[in-house]
Structure formats: C-alpha cells, structure tokens
Design a protein that fits this description.
Elements: H1 4-10, E1 13-17, E2 23-27, E3 36-46, E4 52-56, H2 58-61, E5 64-65, E6 74-79, E7 82-87, E8 98-99, H3 103-106, E9 107-112, E10 115-117
Parallel strand pairs: 4-9, 5-8
Antiparallel strand pairs: 1-2, 3-4, 3-7, 6-7, 9-10
Length: about 120
C-alpha cells in the first residue's frame, strides 16, 4: 500500500511529532544550502483582501514556523504559480524543516474548498 507518508519519505521528508507545535515536516535525508526540497504550494486565486490563496501540499501542511529567526532553515521560492521549498542552510537528516513567520501575513491558504484559512 502506498500512503502519503511513504510518498513524503520518497520525496525526502517525513511527518513526526514536533517540539515546536503538534506535528512537523522533517528531513528524511540531508540537504545542502540552496537545495530544492519539493513543491510546497500552488496559487489558486485571490481572497477578498487581494492576498494570493495557496493550496498546500501534504509536505507543506505540517511545516511549523520559527520561534526565533535563527531557527529558520527553509524558504519559499516562487516559480510561476508554484512555490518550492528550498534549504537556506545545510539541513541534517532528521532535522525539522522550519519556515519564517513572515509568510503568514502575505498569503491566505485555501486547503478546504471555499474556505480561506490564514495560517501561511
């Protein structure tokens, strides 16, 4: 049986309990600074306030935000209507992938049809 968790591991990430919050996305292999980790989300339109609405991939749904700027180890890079997740520094296998909270203010996430969830 092929589950989304086995798919994530094949892509180089896995979901595990997080010390930051709930569950998190973790590196299933090592990454070097600048490496593309995978597709994080796609733009699906705009919300009422004009922010881009994003549909997150399973990998991205579990990424937690940094409590301190020094904790950030990934960033989003836009290519067309897609955002890819890239390493901003070397990441060891087993490390949690942590994103800057700045993205929360810039985008509205649309994970459920017809509902904007402002977490990203």
């Amino acid at each position: 049986m092929y589950s989304f968790r086995s798919f994530l591991e094949a892509q180089g990430t896995k979901i595990k309990p997080s010390k930051i919050h709930g569950h998190g996305t973790f590196a299933a292999k090592s990454y070097k600074k600048g490496d593309k980790i995978g597709l994080a989300c796609t733009i699906s339109g705009k919300d009422k306030s004009g922010r881009s609405q994003l549909r997150r991939t399973e990998m991205c749904k579990f990424i937690n935000y940094a409590n301190k700027p020094d904790d950030v180890n990934v960033e989003l890079k836009k290519v067309g209507n897609k955002f890819n997740l890239h390493a901003v520094r070397d990441i060891a296998s087993g490390a949690e992938l942590v994103l800057s909270g700045k993205y929360r203010k810039e985008y509205a996430v649309l994970d459920y049809p017809g509902k904007s969830v402002f977490v990203f």
